[in-house]
């Protein structure tokens, strides 16, 4: 039933802002189209934090970034003119396609202090859509389907599952949901996706007699119908979908072609990838 359990690893994004990286790992590069999964925080920021904690403008190709918060506020700006603050329960979905740059700033925290807690994931674009026109869409929490039952509260962030369909535009079959489970509550994951996983944000769950603690992701065998049981009040992100094929990662770029990755690096280094008009005074340089 459980193929693998993945522990998050601490990664410093620069300036002292750290995340818990879950995907990718050598043994499991992707789950469905999900190729990157970072747990941000919870981290308390005092008013007056330095700008060095911000994620400065940087590039992407071949993927969609999906930002979802439990607490706090982050300001997004990108090279196609988008400027949008994201708050708990909302979704910022940015499709990089042929190329985009963006920044993520902790401006509310700088002004008045804040608690930052959330998940950022990358969803690889499928064959034939890796070079789509870049796009950005913000979805309010009221736009997303909510499912409530005894001991269960779920927001379907994207895709189709549990009898619901999210209005968030995706490029391949998938599902992604934020669930809250009371002690003893059970949740069966959809069996019609070949790859599925559950990440325990807080609390503790059991699957097939095996305990999964907080800050761990359980990846499930294909063709099974895993049932999650909360051993205590738990927050769990459940996700999965159809594989999109082999993808390579180089820094912030994702592609089915290593030559395309090399071209993206050359374009960014040469300044051929436009920076956000509203945030172009600094940027993250290409790592040597």
Helix content: under 10%
What structural class do you assign from the helix and strand content? mainly beta
Could you list the spans in which at least 5 consecutive residues all have pLDDT below 50?
none
**Rg, nearest Å:** 18 Å
Please sum up the structure shown.
With 288 residues, the protein is mainly beta. The chain has helices at 107-112, 258-269, and strands at 2-7, 9-12, 18-23, 34-45, 55-60, 63-71, 74-78, 83-86, 91-95, 100-105, 114-124, 135-139, 146-149, 152-161, 164-165, 174-181, 186-188, 195-202, 204-207, 210-213, 216-220, 227-230, 234-241, 248-250, 253-255.
Structure description:
There is one protein chain. By secondary structure, the protein is mostly beta strands. It is 6% helix and 50% strand. The chain contains two helices and 25 strands. Strands 1, 13, 14, 15, 16, 18, 21 and 23 form an eight-stranded antiparallel β-sheet that branches. It has a seven-stranded antiparallel β-sheet with strand order 2-3-4-11-6-9-12. Strand 2 and strand 3 form a beta hairpin. The chain is globular.
Highlighted features:
288 residues; mainly beta; seven-stranded antiparallel sheet; 2 helices; globular
Q: Topology, please?
A:
Layout lengths: L1 E6 L1 E4 L5 E6 L10 E12 L9 E6 L2 E9 L2 E5 L4 E4 L4 E5 L4 E6 L1 H6 L1 E11 L10 E5 L6 E4 L2 E10 L2 E2 L8 E8 L4 E3 L6 E8 L1 E4 L2 E4 L2 E5 L6 E4 L3 E8 L6 E3 L2 E3 L2 H12 L19
Antiparallel strand pairs: 1-21, 2-3, 3-4, 4-11, 5-10, 6-9, 6-11, 7-8, 7-10, 9-12, 13-14, 14-15, 14-16, 16-23, 17-22, 18-21, 18-23, 19-20, 19-22, 24-25
């Amino acid at each position: 039933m459980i193929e693998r359990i993945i522990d998050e690893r601490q990664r410093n994004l620069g300036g002292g802002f750290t995340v818990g990286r879950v995907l990718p790992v050598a043994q499991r590069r992707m789950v469905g189209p999900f190729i990157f999964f970072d747990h941000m925080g919870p981290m308390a920021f005092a008013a007056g934090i330095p700008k060095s904690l911000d994620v400065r403008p940087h590039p992407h190709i071949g993927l969609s970034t999906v930002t979802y918060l439990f607490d706090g506020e982050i300001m997004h700006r990108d090279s196609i003119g988008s400027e949008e603050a994201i708050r708990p329960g909302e979704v910022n979905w940015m499709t990089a396609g042929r190329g985009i740059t963006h920044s993520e700033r902790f401006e509310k925290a700088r002004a008045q202090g804040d608690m930052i807690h959330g998940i950022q994931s990358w969803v690889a674009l499928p064959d034939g859509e890796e070079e789509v026109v870049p796009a950005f869409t913000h979805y309010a929490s009221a736009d997303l389907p909510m499912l409530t039952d005894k001991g269960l509260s779920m927001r379907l962030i994207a895709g189709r599952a549990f009898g619901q369909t999210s209005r968030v535009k995706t490029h391949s079959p998938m599902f992604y949901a934020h669930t809250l489970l009371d002690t003893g509550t059970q949740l069966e994951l959809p069996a019609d996706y070949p790859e599925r996983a559950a990440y325990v944000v807080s609390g503790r769950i059991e699957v097939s007699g095996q305990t999964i603690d907080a800050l761990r992701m359980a990846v499930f065998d294909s063709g099974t119908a895993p049932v999650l049981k909360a051993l205590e009040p738990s927050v769990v992100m459940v996700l999965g979908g159809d594989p999109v094929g082999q993808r390579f990662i180089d820094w912030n770029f994702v592609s089915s072609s290593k030559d395309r990755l090399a071209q993206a690096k050359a374009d960014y280094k040469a300044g051929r990838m436009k920076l956000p008009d509203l945030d172009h005074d600094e940027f993250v340089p290409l790592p040597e």
